TrEMBL record, chain A:
Gene3D superfamilies: 2.60.120.1440, 3.55.50.30. Keywords: Membrane, Transmembrane, Transmembrane helix. PANTHER family: PERIPLASMIC SIGNAL SENSOR AND SIGMA FACTOR ACTIVATOR FECR-RELATED, PROTEIN FECR. Residues 116-210 form the FecR protein domain. The keyword Membrane applies. The chain crosses the membrane at residues 82-101. InterPro entries: FecR, FecR_C, Ferrdict_sens_TM. Residues 282-350 form the Protein FecR C-terminal domain. This is Anti-sigma factor. GO terms for molecular function: sigma factor antagonist activity.
Automatic annotation (TrEMBL), chain B:
Coiled coil: none annotated. One of its GO terms (molecular function) is DNA binding. This is RNA polymerase sigma-70 factor. InterPro entries: RNA_pol_sigma-70-like, RNA_pol_sigma-70_dom, RNA_pol_sigma70_bacteroid, RNA_pol_sigma70_r2, RNA_pol_sigma70_r4_t2, RNA_pol_sigma_r2, RNA_pol_sigma_r3/r4-like, WH-like_DNA-bd_sf. Pfam families: Sigma70_r2 (PF04542), Sigma70_r4_2 (PF08281).
Amino acid sequence: MERGIENLLVKYITGQASEEEGLVVKDWIRADEKNEARYLELYETWHLSLYADHSIDPDLAYEKFAKETNIQKRTGIRRIRAIWISSAAVVLLACAIGFYLNPFGNSISGRSEIVISVPKGTTRKLTLPDGTIAWLNAGTTLRYNQNFGKEQRSVYLNGEAYFDIAASERNIPFLLNTDKFVIRDIGTVFNVKAYADEPDFEMAVFEGEVSVEGKFSSHNPQKGKVFLSEKQVLKVKTPVLNKSNKKVAEPARKPDNNELIKLVEVTPAQMEEYKGWTDNFLVFDGESFRKIANDFERRYNVKITFQDPDLEKYEYSGTFRDIRDIRSALQIIKKTTPMEYTINDSEIIIKKLAK
Amino acid sequence: MRTIALEDTADPDMAGKIPVNKDTDLNNPKVFESVFRRYYVELSLFANRFLNDLDMSKEVVSDMFTFLWERRKEIRLNESLKAYLYKAVQNRCLNYLKHKKIENEYVNYLYRNNLFDEVRTSLSNSYSQKELAEQIQCAVERLPEKCREVFKLSRHKHFKNEEIARSLNISQKTVERHITIALEKLRQSLKYLLALLLILSEIFL
């Protein structure tokens, strides 16, 4: 087919044709059945491709609907402690948000703080008051002040979250505080993994640009700043601090600076690793068994102990899709690994396969 | 290095405890909410086929739900709730087009060949939304890099061609060409999913 009319046809289908161009295309469509069939196929394809788009937000729509109809005062904060339910029911309520108010509030501003805690074994999606969408992974806590969105947009994260930051009309920057770093951004999509009880900090940017500020090295007291743009991943390994701020789990040998901080460009396919969990996938790309076990512990709410340190170092790449229980997950790993495991309630022990 | 792959095909749509059929108790706000959340996205996408305007489509769906909530006591369902929702959305879209005197060749085609029922049934019963999204996502990821970038901006960020050209520093003609190529490639890889094609092949082959 002639390229000119094909381009016009696509412009028409995608709603970008001028009125005149539209008339030309309509005439062309009506001129021949073949043309019409071509139009219908491309029109269907265009609409079908929207199914992969996640910009339609039922949460926002429901909030608006609830306000208009007074169906239920769900907007704002529910003053109930979220009840964590069995996994079947969680699927149904996947989008419902469990909030509870911290009765003590924030001592500095005197205003209440909103705390969202996702227990191990589940993930949660929620929309913040400014329209930012946040997916929280298992075992994650997100806190923010009640006046969030008005003069400031600060949140505090312990855990892993995928953010699609809403643009701010008044250019209020979005500040994400983790135990070690401050991430600043004004409208982008990124995933950050910052569990306070794990040495690894990981930040992957899907769209836009962000800065990460903080102490990148325990030897250097000065704060640093790193800028990340699209398809870049920042990995920082820092010693875990316990509650009295003393270092625990100090590695046997002092890692050099290269091991402490790493900024890499990755391919779109590799980016999946950093957000697969929002679709109930667990994606690993050359991760150690120990690190995978950490993810399992949160995802399935279990405790995994290795009897053999060698096994911890095995590396795996692959994707777990919708694996509902730890047993199936371990079975898959077992297929390629000389190991056996025992499960006692939520305690799992992994040992080397006896010969 | 080892490779792991396993699929669990259980459909999350089926996991809901609330039956969505003609016995669904719409008077219960909790039930209504779950119905709203469960169908909002797919109904918006369905409406968009007729309106080709996503914002308008979302509005039509929200309006339909508002109507449904206000009249919930009067409405008697003779069919499944899902069938009712799809039909209600379709009627609203067609009324809107008529009222605004908007011409859509796709809608004209459905009128001429009396295909509304078939398309609606085929779309509402086809794949689970999640499955569909995955397959399309895969097809989009297989596009050539530049093509994919342009297509995503257009389709998922709803950028105008002009805006894409500016942000990527390429000409509008190039943008148009990328989108044309993307759409043709997607058509080829998604052929088996096209609702209308399924219907056409049933009728003509």
